[in-house]
Every structure is written in structure tokens, then in C-alpha cells.
Amino acid sequence: MPMWEGSQADELALDIALHVGSLGAILLYFWRDLAQLFVGLADAVRLKGTAASRMLVLLVSATLPILVVGFLIKDVVTFMLRSAEIIAWTTIIFGLLLYVADRRPEREDDIGQMNFRQVIVIGLAQCLALIPGVSRSGIAMTAGRIVGLDRQLSARFALLLSLPTIAGAGLLGTIDLYRAGDARLTGEALMGGFLAFIAAWIAVVLLMNWLKRFSYTPFVFYRLALGFFLLVLIYGFGWSPGS
């Protein structure tokens, strides 16, 4: 079995720690939803149609499209579209789309009020995140607003949908590290995981509190500013990643 260089193993260990830290923060913040999902799983096994089992089915239904599409075309899409220009333009375009979506009326404010049409739209929209520069959580929030979810619910549902993705990325990274023959987590990785947990916790708390009273507009401005900054670097100074 080939051994990786120490720096590569350390980078992978740090990447795993960052995923685990972010996952821990989301799990802690949404612990009530997580408890409901476990109840829903137990109810589903017993073929009981409850609010908890319906919540579980909605989340699974929204997750399936990106799993299928990602398995089929992820490598093709990321290989063909991975460029600085694509990332800059998608950052701008999907920032504008979020602004337009956020102008729509808010109807549903609870997962129990959601229907399968809304869930499928959000699930299909997540597939766009396979294109470099498209944020998975951002496009899920945008789709949530398009189908009428209020701002808090669109963010809550998007973050709950991130749990399988983050957990899967962390698991795959752990498997890669194990296959590399170096399963240790360094002190730097543990510190990185802790800092990722704190940063993710603060970000989620600030986001959910902000959306109680305000809109997604600051995030739109952020994406536009970042996108135009990248375009200036690319077209004005000939910059490209790795150059």
C-alpha cells in the first residue's frame, strides 16, 4: 500500500477535522430537528405515518437528486467547467438569482407545511452545486425562497440537507487517510476541527438570528463583490488559480 508524504496526510487529516467540526456545529444547533429525524426513522420502520416520519421522507427526497446526478456526472461537470471565469460568473449570476428569489412572498414557515413539489424543486436545484462556484447551501436557500419558504425555513432546510454531504465528505476523507497508511489526527487537525466548530456555530447562529428580521441581501452583495473582484483579477491582471 503506497504511503503518502507527511504533508499530504496532515492536509487530509485537517480537511477531515474541518468537516467534522462544521458537522458538529450544525448537529448541535439543530439538535431538536435531529431528534425528530431519529423519531421519524423509528416511525418509518414501524410504517407509522407521523409528522416526524414525513420530515425524514422530505429530507431524503430532497437529497436523492444530487446523489444520483452527482454519481453520474460530477467528474465530467467539474472537469469541463472548472475555471476561474466560470467560478466568477456563477458567483455573480446565482447571487442575482438569490436577490430575485428573496423578493417572493413568504408562505410556509415550518417543515411540516412543505409539500413534495417544493422538496423536489429544492433537491433538483442542489444539483446545480456540482457546477464550480455554485454554493450548495446557497442554491438550496434560493430554491427554498422560490417555492415560498420563509427565510428562516429556507436556511434551516438547506443546512439540514448539508448534513449528509458533510458527513459523507468526512467519511470519504477518513477512508482515504486510512488507505494512505496514516490514520493519525495531528494536533493541528484537532485544533482546526475545534476552530471550524466554533466558526460554524457562530455563523449558523448569526445567520438564523439575522433572518428573523432581515433579508438575504447582504449575502447577495457579498457574492456580487466577490464575483466582480475575481473578474477584475482575471481580465484585468491575467490571474488564474495556480499561476
Automatic annotation (TrEMBL):
Q: Which GO terms describe its cellular component?
A: plasma membrane
Q: Report which superkingdom the organism of origin falls in.
A: Bacteria
Q: What is its EC number?
A: 3.6.1.27
Q: Which InterPro entries match?
A: UppP (IPR003824)
**Sample GO molecular function, one term:** undecaprenyl-diphosphatase activity
Q: Which reaction does it catalyse?
A: di-trans,octa-cis-undecaprenyl diphosphate + H2O = di-trans,octa-cis-undecaprenyl phosphate + phosphate + H(+)
The taxonomy runs: Bacteria, Pseudomonadati, Pseudomonadota, Alphaproteobacteria, Hyphomicrobiales
Name recorded for this polypeptide: Undecaprenyl-diphosphatase
What's this protein's family per the entry? Belongs to the UppP family.
Task: Tell me yes or no: is Transmembrane among this UniProt entry's keywords.
Answer: yes
The gene for this chain is: uppP1
Which residue spans traverse the membrane? 12-31, 51-72, 84-101, 116-134, 155-178, 190-208, 220-239
A Pfam family hit: BacA
Enzyme class, first EC level, given as a word: hydrolase
The UniProt entry's GO biological process terms, in alphabetical order, are: response to antibiotic
> How does the record say this protein sits in the membrane?
Multi-pass membrane protein
